[in-house]
Amino acid sequence: MHTDTERCVRAVRSKDSRFDGWFFTAVLTTRIYCRPSCPVVPPKVENMTFYPSAAACQQAGFRACKRCRPDTSPGSPQWNARADVVARAMRLISDGVVDREGVPGLAARLGYSTRQIERQLLAELGAGPLALARAQRAQTARLLIETTPLAMADVAFAAGFSSVRTFNDTVREVFALSPSELRSRGKKAPRTPGVISLRLPFRAPLNPTNLFGHLAATAVPGVEEWRDGAYRRTLTLPYGHGIATLTPQPDHVGCLLSLTDLRDLTIAISRCRRLLDLDADPVAIDDQLRTDPLLAPLVDKAPGRRVPRTTDTAEFAVRAVLGQQVSTAAARIHAARLVTAHGTPVDDPAGGLTHLFPDPAGLAALDPESLALPRSRRTTLTTLVASLADGSLKLGVDSDWERARAQLMALPGFGPWTVEVIAMRALGDPDAFLPTDLGIRRAAQELGLPSTPAAFTARAAAWRPWRAYAVQYLWATDDHPINNLPV
User: Fold this and answer.
1) Contact yes or no for 15/63 (Cβ under 8 A)
2) Cα radius of gyration (the chain)
3) Of 277, 359, 429, 437, which one is the catalytic site residue?
4) Do 258 and 195 meet the contact criterion of CB atoms below 8 Å apart?
5) What is the pLDDT of residues 290-309, one digit of tens each?
6) Which among 8, 34, 57, 68 is annotated as catalytic?
7) pLDDT for 45-102, tens place per residue?
8) Side-chain half-sphere of 349: how many Cα atoms within 13 Å?
9) What is the dihedral of CA 285, 291, 292, 293, to 10 degrees?
10) How far is CA 212 from CA 57, 84, 89, 232, 351, in A?
11) 437 has catalytic annotation
Protein backbone atom coordinates (compact mmCIF):
# COMPACT_ATOMS: atom_id res chain seq x y z
CA MET A 1 0.00 0.00 0.00
CA HIS A 2 2.92 2.37 0.69
CA THR A 3 3.37 2.89 -3.06
CA ASP A 4 -0.12 4.42 -3.43
CA THR A 5 0.78 7.94 -2.32
CA GLU A 6 -2.68 9.46 -2.77
CA ARG A 7 -4.35 6.77 -0.66
CA CYS A 8 -1.69 7.05 2.05
CA VAL A 9 -2.08 10.83 2.20
CA ARG A 10 -5.86 10.49 2.65
CA ALA A 11 -5.34 8.01 5.49
CA VAL A 12 -2.85 10.31 7.24
CA ARG A 13 -5.05 13.39 6.90
CA SER A 14 -8.07 11.55 8.29
CA LYS A 15 -5.92 9.94 11.05
CA ASP A 16 -7.46 6.59 10.12
CA SER A 17 -6.32 3.98 12.65
CA ARG A 18 -7.45 1.16 10.36
CA PHE A 19 -4.24 1.66 8.40
CA ASP A 20 -1.89 1.44 11.39
CA GLY A 21 0.61 -1.27 10.56
CA TRP A 22 -0.19 -1.22 6.84
CA PHE A 23 2.36 1.54 6.21
CA PHE A 24 4.40 4.20 8.01
CA THR A 25 4.72 7.92 7.30
CA ALA A 26 8.21 9.42 7.35
CA VAL A 27 8.58 13.20 7.52
CA LEU A 28 11.54 14.48 5.53
CA THR A 29 11.91 17.74 7.46
CA THR A 30 11.88 16.34 11.01
CA ARG A 31 13.33 12.89 10.20
CA ILE A 32 10.57 11.30 12.28
CA TYR A 33 8.28 8.43 11.26
CA CYS A 34 4.71 7.95 12.48
CA ARG A 35 1.72 5.67 12.22
CA PRO A 36 -1.15 6.94 9.99
CA SER A 37 -3.31 7.82 13.01
CA CYS A 38 -0.67 10.03 14.68
CA PRO A 39 -2.51 12.84 16.56
CA VAL A 40 -0.09 15.60 15.49
CA VAL A 41 -0.92 18.02 12.65
CA PRO A 42 -0.16 16.20 9.36
CA PRO A 43 2.90 17.51 7.49
CA LYS A 44 2.79 18.94 4.01
CA VAL A 45 2.38 16.35 1.26
CA GLU A 46 5.75 17.19 -0.28
CA ASN A 47 7.41 16.43 3.07
CA MET A 48 5.85 12.99 3.42
CA THR A 49 7.24 9.69 2.19
CA PHE A 50 5.89 6.24 2.96
CA TYR A 51 7.50 2.96 3.96
CA PRO A 52 6.10 -0.57 4.34
CA SER A 53 7.72 -1.28 7.71
CA ALA A 54 9.17 0.39 10.79
CA ALA A 55 12.47 -1.33 10.01
CA ALA A 56 12.59 0.35 6.60
CA CYS A 57 12.03 3.74 8.24
CA GLN A 58 14.81 3.13 10.74
CA GLN A 59 17.16 1.91 8.03
CA ALA A 60 16.49 5.13 6.08
CA GLY A 61 17.56 7.19 9.10
CA PHE A 62 14.18 8.15 10.61
CA ARG A 63 13.42 7.89 14.33
CA ALA A 64 10.16 6.87 15.96
CA CYS A 65 7.59 9.51 16.90
CA LYS A 66 7.29 9.98 20.67
CA ARG A 67 3.58 10.78 20.44
CA CYS A 68 2.11 7.91 18.42
CA ARG A 69 4.80 5.27 19.08
CA PRO A 70 4.65 3.65 15.63
CA ASP A 71 6.63 0.63 16.80
CA THR A 72 3.57 -0.42 18.85
CA SER A 73 1.20 -0.50 15.86
CA PRO A 74 -0.73 -3.72 15.19
CA GLY A 75 1.16 -5.97 12.79
CA SER A 76 0.36 -5.93 9.11
CA PRO A 77 -2.63 -8.18 8.35
CA GLN A 78 -0.88 -9.34 5.19
CA TRP A 79 1.26 -11.85 7.09
CA ASN A 80 -1.82 -13.66 8.44
CA ALA A 81 -3.65 -13.75 5.12
CA ARG A 82 -0.78 -15.00 2.97
CA ALA A 83 1.23 -18.21 2.80
CA ASP A 84 4.04 -17.16 0.45
CA VAL A 85 7.68 -17.10 1.51
CA VAL A 86 7.66 -13.42 2.60
CA ALA A 87 4.63 -13.93 4.87
CA ARG A 88 6.11 -17.10 6.34
CA ALA A 89 9.42 -15.31 6.91
CA MET A 90 7.67 -12.45 8.71
CA ARG A 91 5.85 -14.87 10.99
CA LEU A 92 9.15 -16.57 11.84
CA ILE A 93 10.91 -13.26 12.49
CA SER A 94 8.13 -12.19 14.86
CA ASP A 95 8.59 -15.56 16.60
CA GLY A 96 12.24 -14.69 17.26
CA VAL A 97 13.89 -17.15 14.85
CA VAL A 98 16.48 -14.65 13.57
CA ASP A 99 17.58 -13.83 17.13
CA ARG A 100 17.94 -17.52 18.00
CA GLU A 101 19.19 -19.04 14.73
CA GLY A 102 20.33 -16.11 12.60
CA VAL A 103 19.45 -15.47 8.96
CA PRO A 104 20.85 -18.88 7.86
CA GLY A 105 18.43 -20.57 10.28
CA LEU A 106 15.53 -18.53 8.90
CA ALA A 107 16.46 -19.44 5.32
CA ALA A 108 16.89 -23.13 6.18
CA ARG A 109 13.42 -23.31 7.70
CA LEU A 110 11.93 -21.81 4.54
CA GLY A 111 14.00 -23.90 2.14
CA TYR A 112 15.65 -20.91 0.45
CA SER A 113 19.16 -19.47 0.38
CA THR A 114 19.96 -16.50 2.62
CA ARG A 115 20.46 -14.36 -0.49
CA GLN A 116 16.98 -15.20 -1.81
CA ILE A 117 15.34 -14.43 1.54
CA GLU A 118 17.15 -11.11 1.89
CA ARG A 119 16.28 -10.10 -1.67
CA GLN A 120 12.57 -10.89 -1.32
CA LEU A 121 12.19 -9.16 2.05
CA LEU A 122 14.09 -6.11 0.85
CA ALA A 123 11.93 -5.86 -2.28
CA GLU A 124 8.64 -6.00 -0.39
CA LEU A 125 9.44 -4.48 3.01
CA GLY A 126 12.37 -2.20 2.29
CA ALA A 127 14.48 -4.00 4.90
CA GLY A 128 16.26 -7.31 5.22
CA PRO A 129 15.76 -9.92 7.97
CA LEU A 130 18.49 -8.45 10.21
CA ALA A 131 16.96 -4.97 10.08
CA LEU A 132 13.48 -6.37 10.76
CA ALA A 133 14.77 -8.35 13.73
CA ARG A 134 16.65 -5.27 14.98
CA ALA A 135 13.44 -3.21 14.92
CA GLN A 136 11.71 -5.92 16.91
CA ARG A 137 14.55 -6.00 19.45
CA ALA A 138 14.24 -2.22 19.85
CA GLN A 139 10.52 -2.55 20.61
CA THR A 140 11.18 -5.32 23.13
CA ALA A 141 13.87 -3.20 24.78
CA ARG A 142 11.48 -0.26 25.11
CA LEU A 143 8.88 -2.51 26.77
CA LEU A 144 11.40 -3.83 29.28
CA ILE A 145 12.80 -0.36 29.99
CA GLU A 146 9.36 1.14 30.63
CA THR A 147 7.64 -1.75 32.42
CA THR A 148 10.35 -3.38 34.54
CA PRO A 149 12.98 -2.16 37.04
CA LEU A 150 15.66 -4.35 35.41
CA ALA A 151 19.19 -3.04 35.11
CA MET A 152 19.94 -1.81 31.59
CA ALA A 153 22.52 -4.55 31.01
CA ASP A 154 19.87 -7.17 31.80
CA VAL A 155 17.40 -5.42 29.50
CA ALA A 156 19.95 -5.43 26.67
CA PHE A 157 20.56 -9.17 26.76
CA ALA A 158 16.90 -10.04 27.44
CA ALA A 159 15.88 -8.06 24.35
CA GLY A 160 18.34 -10.02 22.23
CA PHE A 161 21.21 -7.54 21.82
CA SER A 162 24.72 -8.95 21.68
CA SER A 163 26.24 -6.12 23.74
CA VAL A 164 25.24 -3.20 25.93
CA ARG A 165 26.90 -0.81 23.50
CA THR A 166 24.78 -2.04 20.59
CA PHE A 167 21.70 -1.78 22.80
CA ASN A 168 22.49 1.85 23.75
CA ASP A 169 23.24 2.86 20.17
CA THR A 170 20.06 1.24 18.81
CA VAL A 171 17.78 2.79 21.43
CA ARG A 172 19.24 6.26 20.82
CA GLU A 173 18.96 5.85 17.05
CA VAL A 174 15.38 4.52 17.02
CA PHE A 175 13.82 6.60 19.79
CA ALA A 176 16.13 9.66 19.94
CA LEU A 177 16.43 9.05 23.68
CA SER A 178 18.92 7.21 25.84
CA PRO A 179 17.66 4.13 27.72
CA SER A 180 17.64 6.05 31.02
CA GLU A 181 15.66 8.90 29.42
CA LEU A 182 13.13 6.38 28.11
CA ARG A 183 12.71 4.96 31.61
CA SER A 184 12.22 8.40 33.14
CA ARG A 185 9.46 9.15 30.60
CA GLY A 186 7.60 5.92 31.38
CA LYS A 187 4.49 5.84 33.49
CA LYS A 188 5.14 5.28 37.17
CA ALA A 189 2.49 2.58 37.46
CA PRO A 190 2.72 0.00 40.26
CA ARG A 191 4.75 -3.01 39.16
CA THR A 192 4.41 -6.61 40.25
CA PRO A 193 7.82 -8.26 40.65
CA GLY A 194 8.45 -10.80 37.90
CA VAL A 195 5.41 -9.73 35.87
CA ILE A 196 5.48 -7.60 32.71
CA SER A 197 2.33 -5.58 32.02
CA LEU A 198 1.56 -4.29 28.54
CA ARG A 199 -1.24 -3.48 26.14
CA LEU A 200 -1.85 -5.46 22.96
CA PRO A 201 -3.31 -3.13 20.30
CA PHE A 202 -5.76 -4.28 17.64
CA ARG A 203 -7.75 -2.91 14.73
CA ALA A 204 -11.31 -2.10 15.75
CA PRO A 205 -13.86 -3.50 15.93
CA LEU A 206 -13.08 -6.56 18.02
CA ASN A 207 -15.87 -8.78 19.32
CA PRO A 208 -14.53 -10.61 22.39
CA THR A 209 -17.51 -12.91 22.96
CA ASN A 210 -16.67 -15.79 20.64
CA LEU A 211 -12.92 -15.17 20.91
CA PHE A 212 -12.54 -15.40 24.67
CA GLY A 213 -15.69 -17.50 25.00
CA HIS A 214 -14.21 -20.21 22.78
CA LEU A 215 -10.89 -20.22 24.61
CA ALA A 216 -12.60 -20.36 28.02
CA ALA A 217 -15.15 -23.04 27.06
CA THR A 218 -12.50 -25.37 25.63
CA ALA A 219 -9.82 -24.63 28.25
CA VAL A 220 -7.82 -27.64 29.41
CA PRO A 221 -7.74 -27.71 33.23
CA GLY A 222 -4.24 -27.07 34.54
CA VAL A 223 -3.07 -25.49 31.26
CA GLU A 224 -5.80 -22.85 30.77
CA GLU A 225 -8.39 -21.13 32.92
CA TRP A 226 -10.81 -18.21 33.04
CA ARG A 227 -10.25 -16.22 36.22
CA ASP A 228 -11.41 -12.74 37.26
CA GLY A 229 -12.48 -11.73 33.77
CA ALA A 230 -9.27 -12.89 32.10
CA TYR A 231 -8.12 -15.87 30.07
CA ARG A 232 -4.94 -17.39 31.48
CA ARG A 233 -2.69 -20.11 30.14
CA THR A 234 0.80 -21.57 30.42
CA LEU A 235 3.29 -21.09 27.58
CA THR A 236 6.10 -23.37 26.47
CA LEU A 237 8.83 -21.07 25.12
CA PRO A 238 12.32 -21.52 23.62
CA TYR A 239 14.27 -20.50 26.74
CA GLY A 240 11.82 -21.49 29.46
CA HIS A 241 8.12 -21.21 30.17
CA GLY A 242 5.64 -18.54 31.12
CA ILE A 243 2.08 -17.67 32.08
CA ALA A 244 -0.01 -15.21 30.09
CA THR A 245 -3.06 -13.40 31.48
CA LEU A 246 -5.17 -11.77 28.75
CA THR A 247 -8.02 -9.39 29.60
CA PRO A 248 -10.37 -7.93 26.96
CA GLN A 249 -10.71 -4.15 27.14
CA PRO A 250 -12.62 -1.75 24.84
CA ASP A 251 -9.54 -0.42 23.01
CA HIS A 252 -6.86 -3.02 23.74
CA VAL A 253 -6.19 -6.40 25.30
CA GLY A 254 -4.50 -6.21 28.67
CA CYS A 255 -1.57 -8.62 28.90
CA LEU A 256 0.36 -9.78 31.95
CA LEU A 257 3.35 -12.01 31.27
CA SER A 258 5.24 -13.98 33.90
CA LEU A 259 8.36 -15.47 32.29
CA THR A 260 11.15 -17.66 33.64
CA ASP A 261 13.54 -16.13 31.07
CA LEU A 262 13.04 -12.60 29.76
CA ARG A 263 14.64 -13.54 26.43
CA ASP A 264 11.25 -15.11 25.66
CA LEU A 265 9.38 -11.80 25.87
CA THR A 266 9.21 -11.10 22.12
CA ILE A 267 8.10 -14.66 21.37
CA ALA A 268 5.49 -14.61 24.14
CA ILE A 269 3.96 -11.36 22.83
CA SER A 270 3.92 -12.69 19.28
CA ARG A 271 2.16 -15.88 20.35
CA CYS A 272 -0.43 -14.04 22.42
CA ARG A 273 -1.23 -11.78 19.46
CA ARG A 274 -1.49 -14.81 17.21
CA LEU A 275 -3.71 -16.63 19.73
CA LEU A 276 -6.19 -13.74 19.70
CA ASP A 277 -5.84 -12.97 15.96
CA LEU A 278 -5.10 -9.33 16.81
CA ASP A 279 -3.42 -8.45 13.51
CA ALA A 280 -6.54 -9.18 11.44
CA ASP A 281 -8.24 -6.45 9.40
CA PRO A 282 -11.90 -6.80 10.51
CA VAL A 283 -13.19 -4.03 8.24
CA ALA A 284 -11.92 -5.72 5.09
CA ILE A 285 -13.10 -9.14 6.28
CA ASP A 286 -16.58 -8.02 7.28
CA ASP A 287 -17.06 -5.98 4.09
CA GLN A 288 -16.36 -9.08 2.04
CA LEU A 289 -18.71 -11.28 4.07
CA ARG A 290 -21.49 -8.67 3.89
CA THR A 291 -21.69 -9.17 0.12
CA ASP A 292 -23.69 -12.34 0.89
CA PRO A 293 -27.22 -11.20 1.81
CA LEU A 294 -27.74 -14.24 4.07
CA LEU A 295 -24.54 -13.65 6.00
CA ALA A 296 -24.77 -9.84 6.18
CA PRO A 297 -27.27 -9.74 9.12
CA LEU A 298 -24.92 -11.87 11.25
CA VAL A 299 -21.99 -9.54 10.50
CA ASP A 300 -24.02 -6.40 11.17
CA LYS A 301 -25.29 -7.79 14.47
CA ALA A 302 -21.82 -8.39 15.96
CA PRO A 303 -18.97 -7.23 13.69
CA GLY A 304 -15.30 -7.82 14.35
CA ARG A 305 -15.27 -11.52 15.16
CA ARG A 306 -11.80 -13.09 15.26
CA VAL A 307 -10.62 -16.66 14.84
CA PRO A 308 -9.48 -18.09 18.21
CA ARG A 309 -6.11 -19.65 17.47
CA THR A 310 -3.35 -21.25 19.54
CA THR A 311 0.05 -20.56 21.05
CA ASP A 312 1.36 -24.02 20.12
CA THR A 313 0.51 -25.73 16.82
CA ALA A 314 1.52 -29.23 17.96
CA GLU A 315 -0.59 -28.89 21.10
CA PHE A 316 -3.64 -27.93 19.09
CA ALA A 317 -3.18 -30.82 16.64
CA VAL A 318 -3.19 -33.26 19.58
CA ARG A 319 -6.27 -31.60 21.05
CA ALA A 320 -8.06 -31.72 17.69
CA VAL A 321 -7.60 -35.50 17.62
CA LEU A 322 -8.83 -35.83 21.21
CA GLY A 323 -11.91 -33.81 20.22
CA GLN A 324 -12.92 -36.00 17.28
CA GLN A 325 -16.57 -37.07 17.50
CA VAL A 326 -16.95 -36.12 21.17
CA SER A 327 -18.39 -33.14 23.05
CA THR A 328 -16.37 -30.15 24.17
CA ALA A 329 -16.55 -31.36 27.78
CA ALA A 330 -15.29 -34.84 26.85
CA ALA A 331 -12.42 -33.39 24.84
CA ARG A 332 -11.37 -31.30 27.86
CA ILE A 333 -11.42 -34.41 30.08
CA HIS A 334 -9.23 -36.40 27.68
CA ALA A 335 -6.77 -33.53 27.36
CA ALA A 336 -6.65 -32.97 31.15
CA ARG A 337 -5.77 -36.64 31.72
CA LEU A 338 -2.95 -36.36 29.21
CA VAL A 339 -1.66 -33.19 30.87
CA THR A 340 -1.78 -34.64 34.39
CA ALA A 341 0.07 -37.77 33.32
CA HIS A 342 2.67 -36.29 30.97
CA GLY A 343 2.77 -32.49 31.37
CA THR A 344 5.56 -30.58 33.09
CA PRO A 345 4.46 -29.12 36.46
CA VAL A 346 4.67 -25.34 36.94
CA ASP A 347 3.99 -22.95 39.81
CA ASP A 348 1.24 -20.35 39.52
CA PRO A 349 0.92 -18.23 42.67
CA ALA A 350 -1.71 -16.02 40.99
CA GLY A 351 -4.11 -18.77 39.93
CA GLY A 352 -4.81 -22.43 39.32
CA LEU A 353 -2.52 -23.34 36.43
CA THR A 354 -0.45 -26.43 37.16
CA HIS A 355 1.17 -27.80 34.00
CA LEU A 356 2.64 -27.15 30.58
CA PHE A 357 0.98 -29.14 27.81
CA PRO A 358 3.21 -32.16 27.03
CA ASP A 359 5.37 -31.87 23.93
CA PRO A 360 5.32 -34.43 21.06
CA ALA A 361 8.57 -36.06 22.20
CA GLY A 362 7.08 -36.76 25.62
CA LEU A 363 3.81 -38.02 24.18
CA ALA A 364 5.59 -40.28 21.67
CA ALA A 365 6.84 -42.40 24.57
CA LEU A 366 3.42 -42.96 26.18
CA ASP A 367 1.78 -46.38 26.36
CA PRO A 368 -1.24 -46.40 23.97
CA GLU A 369 -3.08 -48.77 26.32
CA SER A 370 -3.07 -46.07 28.99
CA LEU A 371 -5.31 -43.85 26.85
CA ALA A 372 -9.04 -44.05 27.58
CA LEU A 373 -9.84 -43.77 23.87
CA PRO A 374 -11.22 -46.07 21.18
CA ARG A 375 -8.49 -48.15 19.55
CA SER A 376 -8.72 -46.27 16.24
CA ARG A 377 -8.34 -42.93 18.03
CA ARG A 378 -5.30 -44.24 19.89
CA THR A 379 -3.70 -45.14 16.56
CA THR A 380 -4.48 -41.68 15.20
CA LEU A 381 -2.98 -39.95 18.23
CA THR A 382 0.16 -42.07 18.50
CA THR A 383 0.85 -41.75 14.75
CA LEU A 384 0.43 -37.97 14.96
CA VAL A 385 2.77 -37.47 17.92
CA ALA A 386 5.36 -39.82 16.42
CA SER A 387 5.32 -37.83 13.16
CA LEU A 388 5.65 -34.54 15.05
CA ALA A 389 8.42 -35.89 17.27
CA ASP A 390 10.61 -37.24 14.43
CA GLY A 391 10.12 -34.12 12.29
CA SER A 392 8.43 -35.86 9.36
CA LEU A 393 5.37 -33.66 10.03
CA LYS A 394 6.08 -30.00 10.66
CA LEU A 395 3.34 -27.72 11.90
CA GLY A 396 4.31 -24.15 12.68
CA VAL A 397 4.01 -20.50 11.77
CA ASP A 398 6.24 -21.19 8.77
CA SER A 399 4.15 -24.09 7.43
CA ASP A 400 2.99 -24.17 3.86
CA TRP A 401 -0.74 -24.54 4.42
CA GLU A 402 -1.52 -26.82 1.49
CA ARG A 403 1.48 -29.06 2.09
CA ALA A 404 0.56 -29.39 5.77
CA ARG A 405 -2.99 -30.35 4.77
CA ALA A 406 -1.69 -33.08 2.47
CA GLN A 407 0.61 -34.44 5.18
CA LEU A 408 -2.20 -34.53 7.73
CA MET A 409 -4.62 -36.22 5.34
CA ALA A 410 -2.03 -38.99 4.82
CA LEU A 411 -2.15 -39.91 8.51
CA PRO A 412 -4.64 -42.57 9.68
CA GLY A 413 -7.83 -41.21 11.21
CA PHE A 414 -7.54 -37.73 9.73
CA GLY A 415 -10.54 -36.53 7.76
CA PRO A 416 -11.48 -33.16 6.28
CA TRP A 417 -12.94 -31.79 9.54
CA THR A 418 -9.81 -32.46 11.62
CA VAL A 419 -7.48 -31.17 8.90
CA GLU A 420 -9.46 -27.97 8.36
CA VAL A 421 -9.85 -27.16 12.04
CA ILE A 422 -6.06 -27.52 12.44
CA ALA A 423 -5.52 -25.34 9.36
CA MET A 424 -7.88 -22.71 10.77
CA ARG A 425 -6.83 -22.53 14.40
CA ALA A 426 -3.26 -23.86 14.45
CA LEU A 427 -1.79 -22.92 11.07
CA GLY A 428 -3.75 -19.67 10.79
CA ASP A 429 -5.22 -20.13 7.29
CA PRO A 430 -7.97 -17.46 7.08
CA ASP A 431 -9.73 -19.43 4.32
CA ALA A 432 -10.06 -22.76 6.17
CA PHE A 433 -13.64 -24.05 5.93
CA LEU A 434 -15.67 -26.72 7.77
CA PRO A 435 -18.73 -27.57 5.62
CA THR A 436 -19.24 -30.92 7.42
CA ASP A 437 -19.21 -29.48 10.95
CA LEU A 438 -22.51 -30.16 12.71
CA GLY A 439 -22.86 -26.64 14.11
CA ILE A 440 -22.07 -25.07 10.72
CA ARG A 441 -24.58 -27.30 8.92
CA ARG A 442 -27.27 -26.45 11.47
CA ALA A 443 -26.59 -22.73 11.07
CA ALA A 444 -26.62 -23.06 7.28
CA GLN A 445 -30.00 -24.77 7.37
CA GLU A 446 -31.50 -22.04 9.57
CA LEU A 447 -30.20 -19.31 7.26
CA GLY A 448 -31.33 -21.00 4.06
CA LEU A 449 -27.83 -21.82 2.84
CA PRO A 450 -27.22 -25.11 0.94
CA SER A 451 -27.22 -28.15 3.20
CA THR A 452 -24.96 -30.55 1.28
CA PRO A 453 -21.19 -30.06 1.75
CA ALA A 454 -20.51 -29.74 -2.00
CA ALA A 455 -23.24 -27.15 -2.60
CA PHE A 456 -22.35 -25.31 0.60
CA THR A 457 -18.68 -25.12 -0.40
CA ALA A 458 -19.64 -23.78 -3.82
CA ARG A 459 -21.80 -21.07 -2.23
CA ALA A 460 -19.02 -20.16 0.22
CA ALA A 461 -16.60 -19.45 -2.63
CA ALA A 462 -17.90 -15.86 -2.55
CA TRP A 463 -16.59 -15.52 1.03
CA ARG A 464 -12.98 -16.27 0.07
CA PRO A 465 -10.34 -15.65 1.34
CA TRP A 466 -12.14 -15.18 4.66
CA ARG A 467 -14.15 -18.40 5.07
CA ALA A 468 -12.61 -19.09 8.51
CA TYR A 469 -14.23 -15.86 9.73
CA ALA A 470 -17.54 -16.84 8.15
CA VAL A 471 -17.30 -20.02 10.24
CA GLN A 472 -17.11 -17.87 13.40
CA TYR A 473 -20.28 -15.97 12.42
CA LEU A 474 -22.10 -19.22 11.64
CA TRP A 475 -21.00 -20.86 14.89
CA ALA A 476 -22.26 -17.80 16.77
CA THR A 477 -25.88 -18.57 15.79
CA ASP A 478 -25.86 -21.54 18.18
CA ASP A 479 -26.53 -21.26 21.91
CA HIS A 480 -23.22 -22.81 22.97
CA PRO A 481 -20.78 -21.75 25.71
CA ILE A 482 -18.08 -21.00 23.11
CA ASN A 483 -20.13 -17.98 22.01
CA ASN A 484 -20.37 -16.28 25.39
CA LEU A 485 -17.94 -14.72 27.82
CA PRO A 486 -18.11 -16.55 31.17
CA VAL A 487 -19.89 -14.60 33.87
Assistant:
1) no
2) 23
3) 437
4) yes
5) 999 999 999 999 999 999 99
6) 34
7) 999 999 999 999 999 999 999 889 898 788 778 777 788 899 999 999 999 999 999 9
8) 5
9) 120
10) 35, 29, 28, 10, 18
11) yes
